[in-house]
Amino acid sequence: MTRPLIVPSVLPADFAVLGAEVEALCDAGVDRIQWDVMDGVFVPNLTMGPDVIAAARRHSTVPFEAHLMVVDPDELIPRYIDAGCDLVIVHVEACTHLHRTLARIRDLGGRSGVALNPHTPAAMVRHVLEETDLVLAMTVNPGFGGQQYIAAVEPKVTELRAMIDERSLSIELEVDGGITDETIAGAAAAGADVFISGSWLYSHADGKRAGVDLLRRRATAARGRSGEGRGVA
Ligand code: DX5
User: Does the CB atom of residue 147 touch ligand 1 within 6 A?
Assistant: First the structure.
């Protein structure tokens, strides 16, 4: 398992100065930047298109990932890869042919990811793990930042960790939603190794770099206590 990766969502950013916001995240030592793409149908919110991400790309020294919370990801995947997203995450709930969709992301030169809403069982991705580079277990119902962390998802994170480890697959296990300096320990102990934080990181009193460092320390400590974060009780 890799060292914990801290990946901010730009949802809370000031979009009037997005380039500067991206530069500030890079200066804070983040590992990647996540773009929450919402179509107003799959989730009741509407956010950024590929042109916004392409404009931000030249301000970043770290990779971009696109979290597609959309009803028709197949149509949009090429545009977000062309906009500069190295990793594209689709929702299992939005894919009729998930195996084909994940393979297509890779064929287009991206790394593939699949997200599961809180209610979606881990078994839904069991047969596509060889096609994916990242599994995202949502710890809120997608659509908005600033929501409460759903700890009931932790057993699913542990189940996903076991599925990945039993086949020795090189897959990142990401959690997204309500991740703070308090909740990150439970997610890390359950087996997650990539952590999305938006509102907590943006509102951290000591600034983003201190927030990133604190999240990384808390995740590392929690994994140490739980036996490398493999969901060991
Ligand atoms: C929900 C979004 C949020 C965001 C992080 O659709 O995906 O989870 O990235 O939001 P916070 O960290 O504010 O819960």
Answer: yes
Domain-embedded: residue 187: yes
- CA-CA distance, 127 to 29, in Å (whole number)? 35
Q: Residue 232: inside a domain, yes or no?
A: no
The total domain count for the chain is 1
CB contact set of 22 (below 8 Å; sequence gap of 6+): 10, 13, 33, 56, 59, 60
For the question of whether the overall pTM of this predicted structure is more than 0.90, the answer is yes
233 in a structural domain:
no
Q: Is the CB of 45 under 6 A from ligand 1?
A: no
Q: What is the CATH number of the domain that holds 134?
A: 3.20.20.70
Whether the per-residue pLDDT at 190 is higher than 50: the answer is: yes
Q: Is 118 in the pocket of ligand 1 (CB under 6 A)?
A: no
Residue 231 lies in a domain: no
* Active-site residue set: 36, 176
Backbone phi, then psi, for 133, in 5-degree steps? -105, -15
Measured in angstroms, how far is the CA atom of residue 9 from the centroid of ligand 1?
A: 7
